[in-house]
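Protein modeling request. Please complete all fields; requests missing the sequence field cannot be processed.
Requester role: graduate student
Desired output: 3D structure, token encoding
Chains: 1
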Amino acid sequence: MSDILERIVADKKIELSELKRQKSYGQIEKQAAESAPPRDFLSVFSTTRIAVIAEIKRASPSAGDILPGANPLEIAKDYAAAGVSAISVLTERKYFKGELTFLSIVKEAAPCPILRKDFIIDPYQIPETRSAGGDAFLLIADLLKELELRSMIELAQSFELTPLVEAHSEEDVHKSLATGARVIGVNARNLRTLEMDMKRFETLRKLVPHDVWVVAESGLKSPDEIGILRNLGCHAVLIGETLMKTSDRRGLARKFVEYVALR
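Delivered output (263 residues):
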């Protein structure tokens, strides 16, 4: 694990310790059970059309400040108007400047499924995700042992949530498949070095069977690049910094959506 990942995970454990003192697992579980049923994240995937997952991200360790103070409500409205398939929301506070409350804000503004992006390392965070309004959430395979990953996926199912299991290596892919992941995300960014390698998707996609949905994450700059990913067997693209940095977010998101609709 890289130094930055170690710091993020260490800080997340401290944060979770404080959250558990404020609200027990039983309390957060009760809140989750009383919340509205999640939207079906799996419904965005198809064998005939690539899904566009647009991301709300204020900052990241690799890019620094992307759009400080970005309003999640306004961005969600832009994405919804553009017709995206789902919206990914960064909720990690210290390094990505997100908030858990963004989930409910975005959900009220958009009709599509909402994906929580955070460092999910504890079962507590799964009912927390549902009670906050999330429909799906990210699990980073590299952060969890195989038994832990399997347990998290099974717990997600009990709360009717869909985990997107992110892989960065062949070992991650094998672990994800062994634990029953139905959606695997291949991140072009190396979490250990933060360097980009767009060839990673092609390499790891070959290891995933056809009955598992595959999402290409990070590095997509223009709609034209989707054609390459489609030929490699991509079912969805997750687009973050490119959309967050543009002055016409709604227009560019619509171009991505229109591109996949025509292909």
